[in-house]
């Protein structure tokens, strides 16, 4: 019988959404053009070549190495791209994703990525074109609501703050705004002004966000009510504790 | 029970988030609101920031070199894009500006650390034995009193046996002194009151009896060198300064020869053989001597804080005061300055002792435990519940979920603890302390701490920051392993314990767990009865019975520190 990944326990919609994020089988909700993505990431000018840190691998004459033979390099590594980042901030008010589930989604479904998980933000470093693929995947799918999540390279404050009246997660640097019913980004990840308003589409309604979210909340799906997840946490905890038990 | 309960943080958050402070326009709304208006008023909204900006401008004009300028923040977007709000010191009615809880801006915080760093405990018995057996000198209560009179002249920097010596000005070192304590009531009766830490007077009867039994007929000096000396040098200086002055005082008080070989024996016995530092020396990679914060074990911290002798019937309160002191010293000063630098650590630490959010969680736990486990959270030994995995799971889970739900039901509480590291510390400190209170077992409390971390991470899909998460996700495996470098009783762990060395915000929590286990049992001390008695001294500038209140007084500029230099600088 072929192994089928189970990803995550739990019988609630939050648990189901967590499984979806981890599996990578998430719904595409919007289009973001390559140029728009490049603009908001802010690492290079749209249309410009990828800066490189070394020549393409094919030209480098790599040493004999069984690991290199077994593991094919990613497109970015083959081309010699520099390593760059994309960093998301997700509101605790039912943003679809959460830092750990962004990390799991990326680490499970992409190669050559280095996710970093914090409470207010989640960063992925990878070769630039590989990173862009990862960023686009997250921005275009149900993993991201443009009102409750945003790209923030620095000054990330906002994930735990009350929402402003327009529902756009607080951003000290005011990178995103609601204009004519859609969320636009007029600054790049680190808050530098860009010469275009990049349209990320309509915010999710409160109901839709509550349906798609991966965070437990007492006013939506309470963590207390997902007994299977709590039992699983207890099991992990007990096993880790017993693993180190040595009273002498 | 959870929903019916009036939260202890309610009043604090209402004042903080629904009342105007300065010009921050925070009037109105409810602390349960999920939406708010962000006025982006910058630093103009806050009186302290305005004062600081003015000081920065004046300083730049005076010295001709620019300095503090809030417009340097984020390329011209100053702090205060959200409302700048004050906080309450937990357990008090003291409202403070957040800036005033940075230790640089708070004289009480500085003095707490000064008073610990400049303290050493020195045994007298070996010195007395050497005097009697090696030199044939009789030691009596009268000679001890005389010696202490000499020492209290010499310890601050007075000369005793040499001619033509420079001395320190007494008004600069007036915080320096030495008292003694003993478990021998007969000897204590003979000691001049001014020199004695009276265990019978300072501790409840039960604790006093336990302390005296542990100390027995031994006698110890609680020596506090001048704050100004300790600030100018370092913690390792404390025992050296003490040693030199103790040696000189013995020579003077007992009319000894300054050069004979027997005095070398006395010197060792009096100065080095029975010395107890507040903190151990750290390994070379940390490069700190004894009596620096990285070497102060959690057990020592639990003993330094004195709430256990003035409010013994409320062990949760004891643990909460240890949280405050521990977060301040370990996080704000040790990790925040010695190990890291900068200003960011203050807000990790203050979350645990402001606005009663942690207090609410712990007192909720006390009620939960007392209901479910027949009063196990009350002070006592016969009432404790056995430390099993089931008990750890039950208490830590209930505590953590209650705390998480508070953040969800009260968005202003979440906004107050805006970083995951703050929330993780508070939730785990509550879970760990509660488990320790109920079981009287510090390592069971520590186990509850780690379970809380796991539950928090799974509930919210986030925890703290990179390294913080790492340490909290691997720690459960060494809670019950006592192999060298893998595990220790929590009492003997400290800031330099493997995995704790960069554990921001946590170390006050670990100290609280230690404290909770022992205060919950009604123990007179956690690790060292000598340290507990040494700090049971009302003459110390910092009141170790109420560290949180002292921090509040510091923030209000009401705290009078020691070691000031106004005597030797131009008057302003």
TrEMBL record, chain A:
Pathway: One-carbon metabolism; methyl-coenzyme M reduction; methane from methyl-coenzyme M: step 1/1
Ranges that cross the membrane: none
GO BP annotation list: methanogenesis
GO-annotated molecular function: coenzyme-B sulfoethylthiotransferase activity
Gene3D superfamilies according to UniProt: Methyl-coenzyme M reductase, gamma subunit
SUPFAM superfamilies: Methyl-coenzyme M reductase subunits
Catalyzed chemical reaction(s): coenzyme B + methyl-coenzyme M = methane + coenzyme M-coenzyme B heterodisulfide
Keywords, ordered alphabetically: Methanogenesis, Transferase
Cofactor list: coenzyme F430
Origin: domain of life: Archaea
NCBIfam families named in the record: met_CoM_red_gam
Oligomer status and interactors: Hexamer of two alpha, two beta, and two gamma chains. MCR is a hexamer of two alpha, two beta, and two gamma chains, forming a dimer of heterotrimers.
UniProt family annotation: Belongs to the methyl-coenzyme M reductase gamma subunit family.
Protein name, entry field: Methyl-coenzyme M reductase subunit gamma
Organism of origin: Methanococcoides seepicolus
Annotated gene: mcrG
TrEMBL record, chain B:
Domain of life per record: Archaea
InterPro entries associated with the record: Me_CoM_Rdtase_asu (IPR016212), Me_CoM_Rdtase_asu/bsu_C (IPR008924), Me_CoM_Rdtase_asu_C (IPR009047), Me_CoM_Rdtase_asu_N (IPR003183), Me_CoM_Rdtase_asu_N_sub1 (IPR015811), Me_CoM_Rdtase_asu_N_sub2 (IPR015823), Me_CoM_Rdtase_Fd-like_fold (IPR009024)
Biological processes, Gene Ontology terms: methanogenesis
Sorted UniProt keywords: Metal-binding, Methanogenesis, Methylation, Nickel, Transferase
Top-level class of the enzyme under EC nomenclature: transferase
UniProt modified residues of type Pros-methylhistidine: 272
Annotated Methyl-coenzyme M reductase alpha subunit N-terminal domain residues: 15-283
Entry keyword Disulfide bond: no
Binding locations of coenzyme F430: 162
Reactions it catalyzes: coenzyme B + methyl-coenzyme M = methane + coenzyme M-coenzyme B heterodisulfide
Chain positions with 5-methylarginine modification: 286
Family annotation (Pfam families): MCR_alpha (PF02249), MCR_alpha_N (PF02745)
Enzyme Commission identifier(s): 2.8.4.1
Known cofactor(s): coenzyme F430
Ranges of residues in domain Methyl-coenzyme M reductase alpha subunit C-terminal: 331-463
Quaternary context: MCR is a hexamer of two alpha, two beta, and two gamma chains, forming a dimer of heterotrimers. Hexamer of two alpha, two beta, and two gamma chains.
Family: Belongs to the methyl-coenzyme M reductase alpha subunit family.
Function: Component of the methyl-coenzyme M reductase (MCR) I that catalyzes the reductive cleavage of methyl-coenzyme M (CoM-S-CH3 or 2-(methylthio)ethanesulfonate) using coenzyme B (CoB or 7-mercaptoheptanoylthreonine phosphate) as reductant which results in the production of methane and the mixed heterodisulfide of CoB and CoM (CoM-S-S-CoB). This is the final step in methanogenesis.
Protein name from the UniProt record: Methyl-coenzyme M reductase subunit alpha
Gene source species: Methanococcoides seepicolus
């Amino acid at each position: 019988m072929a192994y089928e990944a189970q990803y995550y326990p739990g019988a609630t919609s939050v648990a189901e959404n967590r499984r979806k994020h981890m599996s990578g089988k998430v719904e595409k909700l919007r289009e973001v053009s390559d140029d728009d993505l490049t603009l908001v990431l802010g690492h290079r000018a749209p249309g410009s070549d990828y800066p490189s840190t070394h020549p393409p691998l094919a030209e480098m004459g790599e040493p004999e190495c069984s690991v290199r033979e077994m593991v094919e390099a990613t497109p970015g590594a083959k081309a010699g791209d520099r390593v760059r980042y994309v960093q998301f901030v997700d509101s605790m008010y039912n943003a679809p994703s959460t830092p750990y589930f962004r990390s799991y989604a990326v680490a499970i479904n992409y190669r050559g990525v280095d996710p970093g998980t914090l409470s207010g933000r989640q960063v992925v470093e990878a070769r630039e074109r590989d990173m862009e693929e990862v960023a686009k995947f997250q921005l275009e799918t149900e993993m991201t609501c443009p009102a409750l999540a945003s790209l923030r390279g620095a000054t990330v404050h906002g994930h735990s703050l009350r929402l402003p009246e327009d529902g756009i997660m607080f951003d000290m640097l005011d990178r995103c705004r609601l204009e004519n019913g859609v969320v636009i980004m007029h600054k790049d990840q680190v808050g530098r002004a860009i010469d275009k308003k990049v349209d990320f589409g309509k915010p999710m309604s409160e109901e839709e966000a509550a349906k798609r979210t991966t965070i437990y909340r007492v006013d939506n799906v309470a963590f207390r009510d997902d007994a299977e997840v709590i039992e699983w946490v207890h099991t992990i905890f007990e096993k880790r504790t017993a693993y180190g038990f040595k009273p002498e | 029970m959870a929903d019916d309960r009036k939260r202890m943080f309610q009043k604090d958050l209402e004042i903080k988030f629904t009342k105007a402070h300065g010009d921050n326009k925070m009037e109105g709304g409810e602390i349960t609101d999920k939406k708010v208006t962000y006025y982006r008023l910058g630093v103009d909204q806050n009186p302290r920031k305005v004062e600081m900006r003015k000081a920065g401008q004046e300083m730049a004009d005076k010295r001709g070199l620019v300095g503090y300028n809030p417009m340097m923040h984020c390329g011209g977007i100053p702090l205060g894009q959200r409302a700048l709000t004050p906080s309450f010191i937990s357990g008090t009615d003291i409202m403070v500006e957040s800036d005033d809880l940075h230790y640089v801006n708070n004289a009480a915080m500085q003095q707490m650390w000064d008073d610990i760093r400049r303290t050493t405990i020195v045994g007298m018995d070996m010195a007395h034995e050497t005097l009697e057996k090696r030199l044939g000198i009789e030691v009596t209560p009268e000679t001890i009193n005389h010696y202490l009179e000499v020492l209290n002249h010499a310890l601050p920097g007075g000369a005793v046996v040499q001619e033509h010596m420079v001395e320190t000005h007494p008004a600069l070192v007036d915080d320096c002194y030495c008292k003694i304590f003993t478990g021998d009531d007969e000897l204590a009766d003979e000691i001049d009151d001014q020199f004695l830490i009276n265990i019978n007077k300072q501790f409840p009867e039960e604790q006093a009896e336990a302390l005296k039994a542990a100390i027995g007929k031994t006698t110890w000096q609680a020596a506090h060198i001048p704050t100004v000396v300790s600030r100018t040098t370092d913690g390792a200086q404390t025992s050296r300064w003490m040693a030199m002055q103790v040696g000189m005082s013995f020579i003077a008080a007992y009319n000894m020869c300054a050069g004979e070989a027997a005095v070398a024996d006395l010197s060792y016995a009096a100065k080095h053989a029975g010395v107890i530092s507040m903190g151990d020396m750290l390994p070379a990679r940390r490069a700190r001597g004894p009596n620096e914060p990285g070497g102060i074990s959690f057990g020592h911290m639990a003993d330094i804080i004195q709430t256990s002798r003035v409010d013994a019937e409320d062990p949760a309160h004891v643990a909460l005061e240890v949280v405050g002191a521990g977060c301040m010293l370990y996080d704000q000063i040790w990790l925040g300055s010695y190990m890291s630098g900068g200003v960011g650590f203050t807000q990790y630490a203050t979350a645990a002792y402001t606005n009663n959010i942690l207090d609410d969680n712990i007192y909720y736990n006390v009620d939960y435990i007392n209901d479910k486990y027949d009063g196990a959270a009350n002070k006592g030994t016969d009432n404790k519940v056995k430390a099993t995995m089931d008990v750890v799971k039950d208490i830590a889970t209930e505590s953590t979920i209650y705390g998480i739900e508070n953040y969800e039901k009260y968005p202003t509480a979440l906004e107050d603890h805006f970083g995951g590291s703050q929330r993780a510390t508070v939730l785990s400190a509550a879970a760990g302390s509660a488990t320790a209170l109920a079981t009287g077992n510090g390592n069971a409390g520590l186990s509850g701490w780690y379970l809380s971390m796991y539950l928090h991470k799974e509930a919210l899909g986030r925890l703290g920051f990179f390294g913080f998460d790492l340490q909290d996700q691997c720690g459960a495996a060494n809670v019950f392993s006592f192999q060298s470098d893998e595990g220790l009783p929590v009492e003997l762990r400290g800031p330099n314990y493997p995995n704790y060395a960069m554990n921001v915000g946590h170390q006050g929590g670990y100290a609280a767990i230690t404290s909770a286990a022992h205060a919950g049992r009604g123990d007179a001390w956690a690790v060292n009865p000598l340290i507990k008695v040494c700090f049971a001294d009302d003459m110390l500038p910092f009141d170790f019975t109420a560290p949180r209140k002292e921090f509040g007084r510091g923030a209000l500029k009401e705290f009078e520190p020691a070691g000031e230099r106004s005597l030797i600088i131009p008057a302003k």
